[in-house]
């Protein structure tokens, strides 16, 4: 061993004398418990995998930047949108939703589209999908929905009976089901798909005036999708196809980019719009609220280490910055808690201090202790608030803005329950070839369902969206249209 070669050490920095042979009683052993290097290696190995995400387990990520191209400071005081030309570093994680960590990239599934902006007023996480809507609109249904996408507790197999039973009993899912079963359910690459914030958020300007807002990331590579047979072949031949494609594109200097635009709705329109603007199973018509360009996102750097950056990255829709706030969207309201809580369980109470999650701006909190505290834990500074020791204090200028609420405390649904107009409009917008592929995909997905009752119930939803839609699926399944 040359003198200039680095010495292998233990995790506590002591040089390792032998990394090939454990300490044993003689050549045959047994192994001695005094071999602390062996014990440390085995114990660490057992803990090398943090629990995988319950959803969005399989993912790929990249670093990049966001550049403002249009002045929207009349709508929001968020510093990342402060002036044209301003660049904010960011990290993006793309993912499938339902599959486990080793699942294929090219299965039919929504794709997570999560962006962490490292702004100069703290991190801002925009945690969306590649679809503008979702399957459900109230977070209380989320665990049940995800259970249907997971494995049967007895057979440990995917269960189409559960999937379609839940969807057929949750007509609000029809819009997202139609998108998922269309060509858009199989994006060709992560670079060739749009992204959406999905939820409605609130923007507030420097004068305290607010608007409702929806985010749209439009791929500048153009939308491309996979034919089902190609996706199936890739799933077998190269289950990491999307991960590989993104890495190599960036590595070769072919930096993917998206244009970010927003729809803006005056606050008062929420009470009169023909769909509830906080219902995440619905979209806002772009004829009513046109897209307004905000800026451009470019991904130009691959992670140096997948685990440290992609796997340990934590995103939460509740990670806001001044000028961007929550709306009363019921699904969003549940996610504000659930995502942060998942990270505290999966990665730890101090997940925000990991390099990939650490804000680029100064952090001053009174949070102390917890597993994996990597800094000086606040040293001997004051550890409570309010205090008279000059510790960090609240800033009234950064209070969130109010919005009116009212009514009895009760378990109530949204007032608007038209779950068929928008899926029907989408179906009618498709070309005949796209409709045929959509019907074929749905028929293929529903054929394994054992219950004709479930099939007929779901066909009834398709029929209410558009009679042709329901009739073609019924014919494909060899069933009749349910009577009204």
TrEMBL record:
EC code(s) of this entry: 1.11.1.6
SMART domains reported in the protein's UniProt record: Catalase
InterPro entries, alphabetized: Catalase, Catalase_3, Catalase_AS, Catalase_clade1/3, Catalase_core, Catalase_haem_BS, Catalase_immune_responsive, Catalase_sf
Highest taxon of the lineage: Bacteria
Enzymatic class: oxidoreductase
SUPFAM superfamilies xref list: Heme-dependent catalase-like
Reaction catalysis annotation: 2 H2O2 = O2 + 2 H2O
Domain Catalase core: 9-393
Iron among keywords: yes
Pfam families on file: Catalase, Catalase-rel
Keyword line: Heme, Hydrogen peroxide, Iron, Metal-binding, Oxidoreductase, Peroxidase
Disordered as annotated region, ranges: 1-27, 370-399
Family the entry assigns: Belongs to the catalase family.
Name of the protein described by the UniProt record: Catalase
Gene: katA
């Amino acid at each position: 061993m040359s003198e200039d070669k680095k010495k292998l050490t233990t995790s506590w920095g002591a040089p390792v004398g032998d990394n090939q042979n454990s300490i044993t009683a003689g050549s045959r052993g047994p192994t001695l418990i005094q071999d602390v290097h062996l014990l440390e290696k085995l114990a660490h190995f057992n803990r090398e995998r943090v629990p995988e995400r319950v959803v969005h387990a399989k993912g790929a990520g990249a670093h990049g930047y966001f550049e403002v191209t249009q002045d929207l400071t009349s709508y929001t005081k968020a510093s990342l949108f402060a002036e044209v030309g301003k660049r904010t570093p960011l990290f993006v994680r793309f993912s499938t939703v339902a599959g486990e960590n080793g699942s294929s990239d090219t299965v039919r599934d929504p794709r997570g589209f999560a962006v962490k902006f490292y702004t100069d007023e703290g991190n801002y996480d925009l945690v969306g999908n590649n679809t503008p809507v979702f399957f459900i609109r109230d977070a209380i249904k989320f665990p049940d929905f995800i259970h249907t996408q997971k494995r049967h507790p007895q057979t440990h197999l995917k269960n189409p009976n559960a999937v379609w039973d839940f969807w057929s009993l949750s007509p609000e899912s029809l819009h997202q089901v139609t998108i998922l079963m269309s060509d858009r359910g199989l994006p060709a690459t992560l670079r060739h798909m749009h992204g959406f914030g999905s939820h409605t958020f609130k923007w507030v300007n420097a004068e305290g005036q607010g608007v409702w807002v929806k985010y749209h990331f439009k791929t500048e590579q153009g939308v491309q999708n996979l034919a089902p047979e190609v996706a199936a072949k890739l799933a077998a031949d190269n289950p990491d196809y999307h991960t590989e494609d993104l890495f190599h594109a960036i590595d070769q200097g072919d930096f993917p980019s998206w244009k970010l635009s927003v729809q803006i709705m005056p606050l008062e329109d929420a009470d009169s719009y023909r769909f509830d603007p906080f219902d995440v199973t619905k979209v806002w018509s772009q004829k009513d609220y046109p897209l307004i360009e905000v800026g451009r996102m470019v991904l130009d750097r691959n992670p140096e280490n997948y685990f440290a950056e992609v796997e340990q990255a934590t995103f939460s829709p509740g990670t806001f910055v001044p000028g961007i706030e929550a709306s009363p969207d019921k699904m969003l309201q549940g996610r504000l808690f659930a995502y942060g809580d998942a990270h505290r369980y999966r990665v730890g109470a101090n997940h925000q201090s990991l390099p990939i999650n650490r804000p680029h701006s100064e952090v001053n909190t009174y949070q102390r202790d917890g597993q994996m505290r990597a800094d000086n834990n606040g040293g001997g500074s004051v550890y409570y608030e309010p205090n008279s020791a000059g510790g960090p204090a609240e800033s009234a200028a950064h209070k969130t803005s109010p919005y009116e609420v009212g009514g009895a405390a009760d378990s109530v649904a949204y007032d608007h329950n038209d779950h068929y107009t928008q899926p029907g409009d989408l179906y009618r917008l498709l070309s005949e070839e796209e409709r045929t592929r959509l019907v074929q995909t749905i028929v293929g997905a529903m054929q394994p369902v054992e219950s004709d009752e479930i099939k007929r119930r779901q066909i009834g939803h398709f029929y209410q969206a558009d009679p042709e839609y329901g009739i073609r699926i019924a014919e494909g399944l060899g069933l009749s249209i349910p009577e009204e």
